Each structure stands twice: as C-alpha cells, then as structure tokens.
Amino acid sequence: MTTLDDLPIRDDLRGLTPYGAPQLDVAVRLNTNENSYPVPEPVVAAIAEALAAELRDLNRYPDRDAVALRADLAAYLGHGLTVDQVWAANGSNEVQQQLLQAFGGPGRTALGFTPAYSMHPLLALGTGTRWVPAARGVDFGLSAADAVAQVREHRPDVVFLCSPNNPTGTALDPAVVAAVLDVAPGVVVVDEAYAEFARPGTVSALAVLPGHPRLVVTRTMSKAFGFAGGRLGYLAADPAVVAAVQLVRLPYHLSALTQAAARAALAHRDALLATVDAIKAQRDRIVTELRAGGHRVADSDANFVLFEVGGDQAAAWRTLLDAGVLVRDVGLPGWLRVTAGTPAETDAFLAAMEKVVSARSEPLLRAPQSRTKGCPA
C-alpha cells in the first residue's frame, strides 16, 4: 500500500496530520464551537426556495465576484461599509488563506500570538509563509507593550490577532489592535469569528477600519448564524485589499448554491441570531459554575469556555467522553475547551465534570499507600 512517504510530497509536509477535531457519535458534542440550535423551519424553507431558484441555471457559472452577496454582507456589518470593501469565500479559513497568498508566501513571515487559532500556522505552511509563534502572557492575555515588542522584533508581513481569541475566548483590548497597527510593516488581520458573542461594550476592529488601509477584519457565518454547513466567511477591509485577494482567488470559487443560501440566511438574520443571547447565557453559566467548583476559567467573549482541569487534560477529556460529552483538547497542558450550547447540553457537561473532579481526587486519596521511597509526596 502506498503511503505519503512513498510520494514526492514537500519535505515540510512530511510527518504532519490534517487539521481536525474528532467527529464522534456521542450524545453531547461540544468540541467544535458550532451553534447547537438547528436552523428554524421558516429559514429552512427560505433557503430551500433560494436554492431551487438556482438549480435550472447550474449549467452556467456563478457570479464570479459574488457582488450581491457582498452587498448583503456590507449591509449586515454596517459601519458605512460598501460592497467594494467586503470579500467572501468558503469559510473564513479560505479568506485567510487568500490573504496569505496575496501578502505572505515564500520569503515572507506571518506572526500570531499563541495560544490562538491553530489553523493560522497551517495556512502559513500551505502558502509557503514562515510562521512566527509570538507569546502571550501567563494568563493568556496580550498587552499592547508585549505585542508591539514582538512585532518590532520580527517585522512580519502579516500579523494575526484574534478577538475573541480561540481557544481562550477573550476579546482584545482595542488598544492592542491600535498599537500593532502603528508598528506593523505589513497587513494586520483581526480574526473576529466569534464577534457576535462578545460581552457588552466590546469594540470591534471594524470601528477603526477608516484610515487604516492595511487592516483586515475577518468574520464567519458558521458560528452565530448557525451556518457551519454552508461554509461562508468574509472580510472587511480597504478596497485595495479586496482587489489584492481577487488576484489569487480561484475562478468561481463560491458556487451559485452557496451564494444563494448565504443571501437567504442573511435576509433572515434576526431569526438566526435569536439564539445568540441564549448561547451567551449558557456560556456565562458555565463560567460561573466552574469557578464556583474551584476551576480556573478564562474570561470568554465567545461561544466557548477554556477551563483548567487540574491535571492531565487528556485523561479528563476521556472521562467526559465516557460520560457522553465531547469537548476539545486544544493541546494546552491541564486545560480543555467546551462549546456553550443548549441548557440541556450544559446540564450534561456540568454533571460530567463532577466525574472529572471525582476521578482527579481518587489518586490523591490513594497516594499514601502507593508512595515509594525517594518519591516526593
């Protein structure tokens, strides 16, 4: 059987595994930050009608530049944005890949502040862009001074800022974005995939787009809109940035069906976004309950919560899975991430966490009997 090692694959791809989270058939799936609420039936009907209207013309290519969809997205975002300031693609991942194709590439550098979205370094790798993993503070925070110092040191062509940050969940202080914009020699990409879930008073980077032609704000319809299966992401930026990504986009990259479904969803955004407050309530409930139980928990402006399990996170992940709850091990020692879903899903998660606490305490109770000479207590 032929393996990757038998193929003339690029050397920098050897030994890697594809990005992805476990897709397991369990009762409660809270590991990929999806919206747990199904699309409302009236919206299902509207999307089905929009798709049906496109079917007879599938022998023709779609609108290559998705002008009508981009106009709808600009209207949704507000801030005085126009169609020539918005670009759309198959998820925000493709948008960010196009940005790296246009502004990164061989001989260029992209920088992100880790822990952050794990696709960013993979997108850099795929586009031949050198990746620099800059550091956050011990509490996963990022100050303007630390960000500026690291941007000045590495002088990257592309800077990624996540607000709210994945996997920690906390939105950035606007001062950090402003400070990075002042010193970054290239483009600054603010990934706002979870912006609709931010706590009151959180400022979007969209507010500072005017006067910053190298600022790009990326968004998605996967989370708040519950449109993950539709695969629609977009950016807002100066028209020159939109023109740049059009140089590298594949022809007809957005199908007519994707454009039609996304436009129908945007037309019914009030119904789709009606679940946002309910999800935020469950997020805040998870934070409160876990902290009351003695867990360290990161502040969250997203639809997920990063929490400390007080030991081996892989073992805690398995305990939760055995209880029928799937969460995400993001590779941070001692920490796991859980998506905020329905009240029933939160009930199941919190009940499963009691088993994690019990499993963690059992070895401590047995420790005096298993202690051997020379081992610390």
Describe this entry's structure for a reader.
The protein has 377 residues and is of the alpha/beta class. It has helices at residues 41-55, 67-77, 91-103, 119-126, 144-154, 174-183, 239-246, 256-267, 269-272, 276-292, 313-322, 343-370; strands at 28-29, 86-89, 109-114, 130-135, 158-162, 187-191, 215-220, 233-237, 304-308, 325-326, 335-339. It is built from twelve helices and eleven strands. The longest helix is centred in the C-terminal third of the chain and has 28 residues, at 343-370. The radius of gyration is 22 Å and the shape is globular. The termini are far apart. The relative contact order is 0.15.
Mean pLDDT: 93
Strand order across the biggest sheet?
A: 2-8-7-6-5-3-4
Unreliable residue stretches: 363-377
Structural class comes to alpha/beta
Q: Hey, roughly how much beta strand do the residues contain?
A: 5-15%
What is the C-alpha radius of gyration, as a whole number of Å? 22 Å
Distance between the termini: 50 Å
- Overall, the morphology is globular
* Elements, N to C (H/E): EHHEHEHEHEHEEEHHHHEHEEH
**Total strand count, please?**
11
Number of helices: 12
Biggest sheet statistics: 7 strands, mixed
Helix content: 25-40%
